[in-house]
Amino acid sequence: MLIRLDDVELRQGGFTLRCTGAFREGIHLISGPVGSGKSTLALILASLAAPGRGSIHREGIDTTLLSLQFPEYHVTCATVEAEIRSWGLDPGEILLQAGLDGRDGADPLQLSRGQLKRLNLACVLAKNPDLLLLDEPFGSLDCAAKVRACRMIEERASGITIIFSHERSVLPRVTTIAEMEDGRLVICGRVPGAIARWQGAPPYLRHALAAGGRPANITLADAREAVCRIRD
Ligand SMILES: Nc1ncnc2c1ncn2[C@@H]1O[C@H](COP(=O)(O)OP(=O)(O)OP(=O)(O)O)[C@@H](O)[C@H]1O
C-alpha cells in the first residue's frame, strides 16, 4: 500500500500548500502548528479537495476514511445507537470502546465534544480502512482519553494511518514523522532517526536528545527509557 504526493500544490486565499512525499503501511505523524495546512492536506489525501497542480498516486488502497477535526461534522442521526449503526457497526462493542456504555439513546449532539470524538474514533478504527486519516484525533480529549486513543491507534495492525496533529504531550508510537511548515510538507523520515530531525519535537524528546539519549520512539515513556539508559 502506498499514497504518494508529487509536487502537489493548492492555493486558498493567501495560503499555499506545497507537498511532495510518500506514505506506506504504518502509522505516520504529520505535526505542525495551527494554520500550517494539516487539515487542508488531510482533505486532499481523502480526495475531498483537489490540488491545483501536481498529482496523487495510490497503490493498493481500496478504502479511505477521514476522521474530521470537529466530530459534530460526522453526525447524521438522532441517537448514538443509530449513529453507530449508520457506520454499519454493532453498537454494543463500539459503546464500550468509546466509554459510552448506557448512552445509546442519547442525542449525539448532546454528548460532550470529547465524548463525540471518542465515538468517532471508535467507529473509524472499527471500519479498518486501507487509508485512515485522523485530523487532530486527540482534540477535546482529557489526558486519560488521549492515552487510550493512542493505544487504539497503535493496535491498528495493517493499512496506512496518518495522524495530523499539533498535540505535543500524549502521542502514539509511530513509524514516520513529517511536519507542516507554513504550507510545506517536510518529511523527517522513519523513527528513531527522524526524532532528531523533528523541529517541532515535544520538550520531553528535546530534553532526552540534549542529554545524549536516543529515544526509540516518540512517547514520554520512550524519552524516559532513553534517559534511564544513559544513567545505567
Ligand atoms: N476554505 C478556505 N479558504 C481560504 N483559506 C483557507 C480555507 N481553509 C483553510 N484556509 C487557510 O489555509 C491555512 C491552513 O489551514 P488548515 O486548516 O489546513 O490548517 P491546520 O494546520 O489544520 O490548522 P489547525 O491546527 O488549526 O487545525 C490557514 O491559513 C487557513 O486560514
UniProtKB/TrEMBL annotation:
InterPro entries according to UniProt: AAA+_ATPase, ABC_transporter-like_ATP-bd, ABC_transpr_LolD-like, P-loop_NTPase
Key words of the record: ATP-binding, Nucleotide-binding
Annotated ranges, domain ABC transporter: 3-207
SUPFAM superfamilies: P-loop containing nucleoside triphosphate hydrolases
GO molecular function terms listed in the Swiss-Prot or TrEMBL record: ATP binding
Keyword Nucleotide-binding applies: yes
Pfam families attached to this UniProt entry: ABC_tran (PF00005)
Protein name: ATP-binding cassette domain-containing protein
